[in-house]
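Before the break, one more example. Copy the sequence into your notebook; we will annotate it together after we see the structure.
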Amino acid sequence: MGRQEREENRMYVYWLSSVESVGNRTIQKLLNHFGSGKGIYHAREEELAVFLNRKQMECIKKSRREWNPEKAYWDLQKKGIRFLLQQDEEYPEKLRNIPDAPCGMFCLGNLPREDVLSVAIIGARECSEYGKYVAKGLGDALGKQGVQVISGMARGVDGISQQAALDAGGVSYGVLGCGVDICYPASNRALYEELVKVGGVLSPFPPGTQPRPQNFPPRNRIVSGLADVIVVVEARAKSGTLITVDMALEQGREVYVVPGRITDRLSDGCNRLLKQGAAVLLSPYDFLEDMAQRCGKGGIQKQEGEGEPDGICSMEKRSPFISRLDVSQEMRRVYEALDYEPQSVEQITERLQGQMRIDPMQVNTILLSLSMMQVASQLSPGHFSLKV
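Here is what the structure looks like once it is written out:
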C-alpha cells in the first residue's frame, strides 16, 4: 500500500471511528472483511448488514449523508491531531500487542518512546493527604530519573503524579476518556496544556467526544497497555483502579502497590492486592533498580560523588518551607507531630506531652495558624494533617 493509499485508508477509518454506536471490535471485523476504510465506506448496505445491527446501519447511513471524509480528515490535521492505525509504524508497539487493541489512536503532542521505561501511576481521585504526598514524591522521583509517567489525567493520584513528573523536568503522557481536544477534568487545564507541549495526550475516541462513563474502561486499558509496569498508590476495595489492575495483569504487566494503613479505607484495595501477591513499592529508587534488572530499563542516574537518593518518605524534606520561617518552638513541635493521616487535636496533644507542656486549646490555635500558612490541612472539625 503506497503513501497515498495509506492516507486515504486512514481518512476513511477516521470516518468510521466517528460513527455513533460502531465500536472498536466492529471496526476490526469490518476492516478484516472489506480490507480498507474506503472499502467499508463504499460497500453496499446489504453487505454491511451482515456485520451491523439495525441501529448501527442507521448511523452508518446518516453519517454517509452528513460526513465529508476528506474535509473532516484535513480539519483534523489542521488542529495538529494525528490519527494512527495499528499498521502504522508510529503506532505504539506495546499497545499493538494487547488484547482488543484500538484500531486507531488519536494523539496531540508526542507518543511515548518505546526504548524508555514507562510507568503508569494510578489511584484514587479523592485521595488522602498521604496519597497526595506519595503520588507527588513518586512522580518527582521518576521524572528526575527520566522515566515516562503514564496516567489518565484524572483528579487525585493520576494528575498529581503527572504534574510532579513534569515539574521535575520529566515527561508524562495522558490518556483520556474523551477526545484529545477536550480537557477533562477542566480543573486540570494547566496540566493538559503542559502535557501537550512536553509529553502528549492520547485517546481512542475521535475529537469532540465528550467524557462518558462507558469511555473510561477502554481508556484504562490503554493506560496499562502503554506502560511497562503499573503502580497503585491508593484504592478502595471497589474502585476503577482495581479494574485497571485486572486489565494490566491480563496484558502481562507488572503491578506494584504502595501499602497503606489497615484502618484506612482508601488503602483497602492496595492491601488486598499485596495479599494477593502484588509487589510492594517502598522506595522509587529500589523500584527503579528492580525494573533495570527485570526489563533492562530504568536504574538510578546519579551524579559523581552523590550518595543514595532520599526516598519519598524522607520527613526532613516533606515541607522545607516551614524550616525557613521564623516560628515559635511550640509551632515547630506541633508541626512535627503532624502526619499525612488525619489526627484529632487530642491525639496530637497526647503525642506532644513528653516534649512540652501544652493544652488542647493551644494546640488547636497553632494548628489553625499552620492551616492558614498552607502547611497543614483541617480535613474536618478538630482533625488535621500535613498538607502536600
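The chain has 18 helices and twelve strands. The CA atoms of residues 342 and 380 lie 9 Å apart. Try to locate both features in your own notes.
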